[in-house]
């Protein structure tokens, strides 16, 4: 199993964390994660967001906010 995990991590390196999580869920046929907006701040052209992610009832929330580049 650890070999499969290493191979999966190499495939996901360099990807946006949300894309990587969605890809893992699709490959393992898990239910898609639920993203909950906790906080947003900044001007409209450069907003920072903090999301909590629920996957199979398990929450995860990072310690810092992220800037989402949409372009």
Report on this structure.
The chain is α+β, with helices and mostly antiparallel strands and 71 residues long. The chain has a domain at 36-70. Helix content is 31%, strand content 30%. It is built from two helices and four strands; from the N terminus they run H-H-E-E-E-E. The chain has helices spanning 2-12, 17-27; strands at 34-41, 48-55, 58-60, 66-67. Strands 1, 2, 3 and 4 form a four-stranded antiparallel β-sheet that branches. The longest helix has 11 residues, at 2-12.
What is the compact description of this entry?
The chain is α+β, with helices and mostly antiparallel strands and 71 residues long. The chain has helices at 2-12, 17-27, and strands at 34-41, 48-55, 58-60, 66-67. It has a domain at 36-70.
What key attributes describe this structure?
71 residues; alpha+beta; 4 strands; RNA-binding; isopeptide bond
What gyration radius follows from the Cα positions, in whole Å? 14 Å
SS content category: alpha+beta
Order of helices and strands: HHEEEE
Unreliable stretches: none
> What is the overall number of helices?
2
Task: Tally the beta strands.
Answer: 4
Q: Kindly state the mean pLDDT as a whole number?
A: 80
Query: What is the CA-CA span between the terminal residues?
Result: 37 Å
Give a quick account of the main beta sheet: strands, pairing sense, barrel closure.
Answer: 4 strands, antiparallel
Percent of residues in beta strands:
25-35%
Q: What does the overall shape look like?
A: globular
């Amino acid at each position: 199993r650890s070999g499969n995990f290493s191979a999966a991590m190499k495939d996901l390196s360099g990807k946006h964390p949300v894309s990587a999580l969605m890809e893992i869920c699709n490959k393992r046929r898990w239910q898609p994660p639920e993203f909950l907006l906790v906080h947003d701040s900044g001007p409209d052209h450069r907003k920072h967001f903090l999301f909590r992610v629920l996957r199979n009832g398990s929450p995860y929330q990072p310690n810092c906010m992220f800037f989402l580049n949409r372009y």
